[in-house]
Amino acid sequence: MILVTGATGQLGAAVIHQLLQKVPSSQIAAFVRDETKAANLSKQGITIRKGDYNDINALNYAMQGINTVLLVAGTDEENRVSQHQHVVDAAKKAAVQRIAYTSRAMKDPATLVNQLMKGHFQTEEYIVASGLTYTLFRNILYMDAIPQFVGGNAVFERGIDLPAGQGRVALALRSEMGEAIANALVASHEGNTTYWLTGSESYSFYDIAAALTKLSGQSVVYSPAEPATFDAQLIKRGLPAILAGRITGFITDIANGQEDLVSPDLERLLGRKPTTLLDGLRLLYGL
């Protein structure tokens, strides 16, 4: 049986959607905080196990009868590492055959500006040290996040103003990452594996602006901002200074080339080319 944590979140739901097309629902379990949000999963025959990453007893119970557990990264960035460790400990205690983790694709974790991102690699280290057989999915930035980055439909009026410089990202759709992860989970596995789930090509925000211009027929201009200026603008809009710093740091890491990584792993797991930037933005914006 495969246990998917964070099963009602966007990535967890995408993985389960694909698993249902590959294995009987009786072979899937979902670890969720809110059972009401998992009602649709239960109706499809998926086993629901309730709890959160801080609930040791719930985690221990959730691991019973599980062969493979997919640990979907938690959203509590401050406490992420300790929460992930609880999941790994429960998996080890239950003698789970394999643990998989949704990490992040970064070129050099040691030089990240956004320090909270390092929690992913600390989790990886803990998994490796656990002695469990593991599969690590190092995921690139979702293409789905681009509308949020550029201000949704307002981008067609205001353009793009971010401190990303000429940094490039091999963007990929969340749905295709979910499909690739599901394919890897159901495949026969031997030993430890790390997948880099990226698109087939990396793109800059100049490329994103050009694609939006082509799709909409309206001129979209990307104007690289200075990090300090961008950070001040976020604070002026009402964001707490700590949150503003995290956002600026995240985008500065893009400027520094942290996500300029291209791997064939996503294409191999999908069995086809990942969706291109133009087609992905067309889908996301309904253009």
Automatic annotation (TrEMBL):
Residue intervals of the NmrA-like domain: 2-234
The organism's place on the tree of life at top rank: Bacteria
Segment forming the signal sequence: none
Matches recorded under Pfam families: NmrA
Protein's name in the database: SDR family oxidoreductase
Biological source species: Spirosoma terrae
Higher taxonomy: Bacteria, Pseudomonadati, Bacteroidota, Cytophagia, Cytophagales
